[in-house]
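--- STAGE predict ---
source: upstream dedup step, 1 unique chain passed
mode: sequence only
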Amino acid sequence: MSENSPPKAFNPMPPVVMALFGLIAGTELLFTFAGSGILGDTDGVGWRYAAIESYGVNTALLGWMVENNQYPLEHLARFVSFSFLHSSMINAAVACALFLAMGKMVGTAFSAVAVLMFFFISAAAGAICYSIAVPEGEWLFGSFTGIYGLIGAYTFMVWVSLRVQNAPQGQAFYLIAVLMGVQLGFGMILGDNDSWIADLTAFVTGFILSFFFVPGGLGSILSLFRKS
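--- STAGE serialize ---
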């Protein structure tokens, strides 16, 4: 009788993805419990908004730092910490679901360090670009910008696969086209802010970073393309 165990029905979620998910979901649970009065008594209601003011990205902040040539660590940290803040539990739940889906696909192909870079560097790049493009824009916060960095990495995976198969490579960008279309559509209907600038920047950043974090490095991709 073979001692080999049967294959698992589902591959385990990469630990780095679960760790980030825990931070995102844990932060939202804290605000939800505080808002319902379970934590912080009456003061807990304002925890979410106080956190956004303290850790979110104010678009005018980058201009102030450049103008005064001052870059306090507490303000630079905002370009990372804004990713763990959301406007509501529903908003956070949607972000968590999308993060787990994209994180699993990217995390099974790239290293844990790469996943962190896709999420945080892309988020920071998106926030900086948004601040430059819309210096008087609304506050930027939420995990979606970093998630778009993961979508960029996923798109890279699909693009490489299609190129190797000599299939139409434009199909790789179908997901980002749909997401951007939906986001711009809701923006026109609801009068949303220009956060799509941050998201699109994060997507491009994640896509470019993939060239350097792909297993085997940039050389392996170039070699693969020469053979295709």
